[in-house]
Amino acid sequence: MTGNVAATVRQRAPATLSPMNEFDILQSAAAGMDAQRAALDVAARNVAAAEATPGAGVFERMVPRFALDNADLAGDAAGDDDSEPGADPDDAAGLPVRFLGAVPERGVDVDAVTEMVAVLDAQRAYESDASVFDAGKRLAERTIDIGRLQ
Asked: Which of 122, 129, 124, 130 lies closest to 46, judged by CA?
């Protein structure tokens, strides 16, 4: 999860990592892109809330929550399921980062400028993860090509 997105991350105890293969980079990049997509959704909701009530109403700022699934990185898919409403557990199956939902940030009102900065940060992080995914795809293609030559 890259970027300067305000998010709460909960991490489990470290697990023993299994050896990596050529496609792990694709899974990691996809997990990062999924996390940034969720952060963009929450920031877009915050921007809409800020624009809906300019100066009159008050909306609490929503913050995305994520969990790092170290056990999934080690090949152990078992884990606690403390996801919140709004998060689809089937969408995160097998990914090292799970979106748990959004929670209100107590005492902080939505500010359009702050949320637009969060949107830009999440967008840049998404693009970075997409670049990593593209590099991983090229690496996997080259690996397959080398295997064909032998």
From this structure: 122
Are the CB atoms for 115 and 102 separated by under 8 Å? no
Measured from the Cβ of residue 111, the count of other Cβ atoms closer than 10 Å reads: 13
Q: Is there a domain that residue 106 lies in?
A: yes
Residues 41-71 pLDDT 10s: 999 888 888 888 666 567 788 999 988 876 5
Give CA–CA dist 137/143, Å, rounded.
10
Residue 3 lies in a domain: no
Answer yes or no: pTM beyond 0.85: no
The number of domains in the chain is 1
In a domain, residue 2? The reply is no
In the predicted model, what is the mean pLDDT of the chain?
A: 74
What tokens appear for 118 in the block?
């969060």
Contact between 146 and 33 under an 8 Å Cβ cutoff? The reply is no
Question: How far, in Å, CA of 40 to CA of 62, rounded?
Answer: 12
